[in-house]
């Protein structure tokens, strides 16, 4: 599932190849990924226009359109991605933005999310109203995390904190040595400070890698092994569910 580092990578692809360049056409190969906008309206709004500098909010990619108030809003769901390519389209390329020497392609196998066109700032604000602060930019966590929630559930709740998915939440909690089932109210201010520092470091390393890297020294590199062990202490990892998500932790490093 694309998380904050993946979406930041998609933002960089768009910024490098498509910003300030004339859109010569928009090909909608599968209208099922369009949300609250039709194919004809999307083509009319974008053809002949140019994208301005994109920005990211958690898992959302926001792309202003020059010469008008509209913003293209992309969400990548479970299997979405963004590619700059030429040649024959991939079978899961759903929407293609055409330029003079290449194409920006929104690709998505499962089509759980998709593409929106916010007509103006007010529409964009309404769309993002339930989205929390970006996990890479957030201030003190004591001001954000709900005290009654479990830590894992709070971290993956996009209305609380935007950008973290399953892999990142487990990785961050493992690095911070915090049990995913602990209530936020039981975590002291010093521990929350460590959690924020750990989160920012993990995110920066993941952004640099373009994903949450499955390195042997990371929990992510061991979590899917049948009898995976903690990269830090060698204890067999525990598996369960927290916040409705499959969860992995070390019972020795992350006691309850």
TrEMBL record:
Tagged with keyword Zinc-finger: yes
Domain FPG-type: 218-255
Lyase keyword on record: yes
Cofactor(s) needed by this chain: Zn(2+)
Superkingdom per UniProt: Bacteria
Domain Formamidopyrimidine-DNA glycosylase catalytic: 2-113
Span list, region Disordered: 207-229
Catalytic activity, reaction form: 2'-deoxyribonucleotide-(2'-deoxyribose 5'-phosphate)-2'-deoxyribonucleotide-DNA = a 3'-end 2'-deoxyribonucleotide-(2,3-dehydro-2,3-deoxyribose 5'-phosphate)-DNA + a 5'-end 5'-phospho-2'-deoxyribonucleoside-DNA + H(+); Hydrolysis of DNA containing ring-opened 7-methylguanine residues, releasing 2,6-diamino-4-hydroxy-5-(N-methyl)formamidopyrimidine
Keywords: DNA damage, DNA repair, DNA-binding, Glycosidase, Hydrolase, Lyase, Metal-binding, Multifunctional enzyme, Zinc, Zinc-finger
Family statement: Belongs to the FPG family.
Protein name: Fpg/Nei family DNA glycosylase
